[in-house]
Each structure stands twice: as structure tokens, then as C-alpha cells.
Amino acid sequence: MSFQQRLIAFVHLGKILAEASKAGQARTVGEAYLYNNWFTEESQRNCFAVWADLLTESKLTKWLNKYPIEEKIAPKNIAIIMAGNIPMVGFHDLLCVLLSGNNATVKMSSDDKILIKWIADELIKFDTTFNEKIHFVEDQIKSNFDAVIATGSNNSNRYFEAYFGKYPNILRKNRNSIAIVDGNETEDEMKLLADDIFSNFGLGCRNVSKVFLPNGFAFEKLYENTHKYSEFIHHNKYANNYTYHKAIWLMNTDKFLDNGFLLMKEENEQFSSPLASIYYQYYNNMDEVKSIINQRKNEIQCVVSTENFKNNIPFGSTQTPALNDYADNVDTMKFLTEL
User: Phi, psi (5° rounding) for residue 210?
Assistant: First the structure.
């Protein structure tokens, strides 16, 4: 299967996702929601739209031009252990493996089995050669692989290190995203920050879980622009988390703010806030924040800010990464093409 054939297949997939983002694939969307209630119709269709925008011939070609992709006589077998916290979160790894000319042995997350399988089926339907290049496994991956890409929690990463450490690998663990507010943001920027916090219920590593605020910041400016997400409190799983963590903080006599659907707590150490909540930390000047970022850069996925930080991104862009925005800042395509 040539590179051009693979490229054409993914461009075709992009068109299918574009249609699915509007009204198509109602059955698949419904099945995915019934299987995992975090995957609402809106979150799925937003995901489809993001990928439809990326899977164009021009964007794929521009992304891949920097890599020495060769036709492989003997493709490597790459084990992919996927996360499932947000819809199709493991798709980028599958895309990289297949476009690099390798074969994928996929262990799907138990939380995202419908959408990833549907994507694979659409590729196979377009070109049956993919049937030989994508293999799904239900149990632990134990053999027949040359390299590993595994995504999980800090706890599962210890297992990954022990079991896969002797193979070429990319082993990912928990990361969180932060935002830096300087107090001069427009109302539109604050609404975009709300998107960074709430999209996909805040379940993604690119969701903002902690905000750095200038001393004296008026919280009304943040809370007033989150109201479009107030309906989340009617989502059973989200509401359960909100109620649980509120109760814990009340029992611990912790100080926190509450607008009825989002809890905010001052926290100067942790980045990872519980679901349905967000941490905040005050600062006196930007040098303080830059120092924290430099010291803890391996814990951070995204930095959302209008300030000139290294690799910072604008408000509202956490859920629309480019093809070369690699998780944990590890270049997956470089890893695969150099095997």
C-alpha cells in the first residue's frame, strides 16, 4: 500500500467526518453515547468537525513533508494503547502509525470502543488493504510488536515502564493545561477561556484545570462568561462529581467559590483539579508564573495566554490542536519514521 493510497484514504475519511459533524452517522453517535454518557452528541460532532478540518490533502501534505516517509517492504508492528477520556483521543496515534507506513495493533480504551472501531471500519471500507494494517486486541498486548505508544495515568505509566521499557516507546502519563489571565482580557477572550475549561466536560489533558490570576482579580469576570455551560449540572455524571467534591470540601472546611455548576478553589501546588472544579493561584508578576512553568514543564500539556510564553496558545484553542501538536511534546511521526 503506497503512501499516496494511504493519504487519499485519510482525505476520504475527512469527508466522512465532515458529514458526521453535521447530521450523518446518527447511529454511531447514538451508540457511542449509550456506551459512554460522557460522549454527548455535541462533543462527538465537535470532535468530528475538528478532524474533518485537519484531514485535507493540503494540511496532511504540509504536515508530513518534513518527515522521511518511505515505502516499507517490512512495516513495523506498532502497539497502541489508547486512552478514552474524550472522543477519538487515540486517533492521532493511529493516524501517525498508518501514514508512516507501519501496522497498528490497537488496544482500545474501554471508554472509547465505538468511535475508534467505526473509524477503522470506514478506512477498511474505502480500501480493504487496511484490514491487514489494523489489528484490534481485547486483552493485554504481549507479543508481535516492535514498538509501543501507550497513554494512561501516572499509575498505569509505572506498568508501561516495567513492561514496555525495553522496546522503543512513547509512554505518556498525566498532564494538565493551565491558563494565565493578566486582567486585560476582553469578554470574548474570557468566553473562549470558558471553552478551554468546559469542553468535553473538562476531561481532556488539554482542558484548563488551573488558572493563574493577578492579585485582586474580580471573579465575576470569569464566572459571568461561563453561563453557557450551566446546563452541565443536568448531566448526571457531571452533577455527581460536582456534588461529591463540594461535599468533600465542605466537610474539610476548605474555602472555595461556587456558581452552581463550577467549583473554584485556591491551590498553590496542584495543577490537576477534580472534575467539575478548577484551581486558581494568584501572582504578583509574570516572572513568578514563568518560573513555575519552567520548573514544572513536564506536568503541563498546554499554556493558554496572551503573554509571550514558550509554545503558549490563544484562548479558545485547546480543543483544536494542529496535526503537529503532539501529546507531551513528543514528535510521534519522528519517532515512527526513525524506527
Answer: -145, 140
- List the grid coordinates of 116: 475508534
Q: Could you report the per-residue pLDDT of 205-250, keeping only the tens digit for each?
A: 999 999 999 998 888 888 889 999 999 999 999 999 999 999 999 9
Closest CA to 14 of 73, 109, 70, 88: 88
State whether CATH 3.40.605.10 applies to domain 3-174. yes
Measured in degrees and rounded to the nearest 5, phi and psi for residue 87 equal: -55, 130
Query: Which helix H or strand E contains 290, and what residues bound it?
Result: helix 286-295
CATH architecture of 176-304: 3-Layer(aba) Sandwich (3.40)
* Strand, helix or coil for residue 157: helix
Give Cβ neighbours of residue 193 (< 8 Å, ≥ 6 apart). Answer: 179, 181, 185, 208, 211, 222, 225, 304, 315, 316
pLDDT bracket for residue 154 (50, 70, 90):
confident
Over residues 173-177, the mean pLDDT reads: 93
